[in-house]
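Hi team,

Below is the intake form for Cysteine synthase from Christiangramia salexigens. Please confirm the fields before the structure is written into the shared record.

FORM ID: S-0412
PROTEIN: Cysteine synthase
ORGANISM: Christiangramia salexigens
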Amino acid sequence: MNDSILDIVGNTPLVKAKRLVENPNVELYFKLEGQNPGGSVKDRAAFNMIKSALDRGDINNKTRLIEATSGNTGIALAMIAGIFGLEIELVMPENSTIERVQTMRAYGAKVTLTDADGGIEGSRDYAEDKAKTGDYFMLNQFGNNDNWKAHYKTTGPEIWNDTNNNITHFVSSMGTTGTIMGTSTFLKEKNNEIQIIGVQPTDDSRIPGIRKWPEAYLPKIFNPKKVDRVLEVSQKEAEEMTRRLAEEEGIFAGMSSGGAAAAAVRLCNELESGLVVSIVCDRGDRYLSSDLFA
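The structure came back. Fields below:
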């Protein structure tokens, strides 16, 4: 029995891939972050950013929050802000799926949609301009150390313990980079030989949740020294693997998870041996209005 829904953030399942890996000497496990109460890995960061800001006195119950998001962080922030009785405005591109917008509003958030052509960068500019007025507090997931520390405190230890300290490679899509930064920091402290693999889209691909940032928008929390290797995946690869995850492994997820899985399977097929863990960021029901599963 739990006192609050916040008590079930984290401790998500780790499940072994049964059909995707052909290499008999490598095991691939998926960490199912869609099992978080808000439906994604971003519950961890959102909870830690809001709770830490409250504990430090940076914000209080009269503070108005604002944040730019491509979707999952916004949903997580909307849920957790509501639990703490905080007002929040979430800013996202107008081409975001309707499921994401409606979910944020269901949790009580105000949602502002910016021009699709401006992408998430335009949403970040809008939120930063409003924060400069002094009427809002911007959590700034792209530059907030409480983002990556959430994964240092939870995701990394969970993976280490659930693999019985045997993990050899960690694979994660890179968006805000909070997941890969925090998990890398923890795992490298335990065993510096563990390889950290970041996943980015190819130059001509659009994969929601994975970015290759322009220099001006590169997340301030990102430290390239914490990533041993970067693999690029195409939009087609990500889409096809997302569908394969559902059809062959029973894992219903979004395209960023498919991108990470595509990179992880590619990695598994080139290794002599190993235990690989790949992050499944969210659930696929957030993408049913898109053509991902058409």
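SUMMARY LINE: Residues 241 and 258 are 5 Å apart (CA to CA).

Thanks, M.
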